[in-house]
Amino acid sequence: MTASVQYVKRFQMVFDFGRQAFAAPVLPPEYRWIPWSPSLLETHAKVKYLSFCDDLDARIFPSFASLDRCRNLMNAISSRNGFLPETTWLIARIVPNSDAPPEYCATIQGIRHAFDSGGIQNVAVMPDFRRRGLGQSLVLKALDGFRNAGVRKVALEVTAENATAVRLYNRIGFETVQTVYKETRGHS
User: Fold this and answer.
1) CA-to-CA distance for 178 and 181, rounded, in angstroms?
2) Where residue 1 falls among pLDDT bands split at 50, 70, 90?
């Protein structure tokens, strides 16, 4: 088996607060916002890994291919200059009247790139929790944090094949500003 080089189309998208309004984030009834805390780094890494490990993005970005690499990625994001805790969230499902522990199922992180611009690092929702509006809520919650931090434009990058995510970002108000191609290795 030999590895072949393939290229994946990705969209760089931007949300401009001067041109777009956005809705308040809303979670389904059994779900709760969990704010960033360094003690939750491992939880963010695990949710990120379980969200991406079987997706195309794990072939594009090796940092998604193992829990250890996701942990290293979260360490790098959270220790980076410009890390914005107010844009970095977990979502947990908490069953009322139950002793069951919280079920962490989604994560997002944000970075300030310059005084008035920032970037969403990852929008990760575990497969069993998709199609519940959690991804949209994560992005809206992060946008609220960016706006409160004085950021005027927020960028993200998404694989073009992920039509669901592209539609979501368009619906929120992100606009595609550039198309790029990322190298990935496939097996033939």
Assistant:
1) 10
2) low
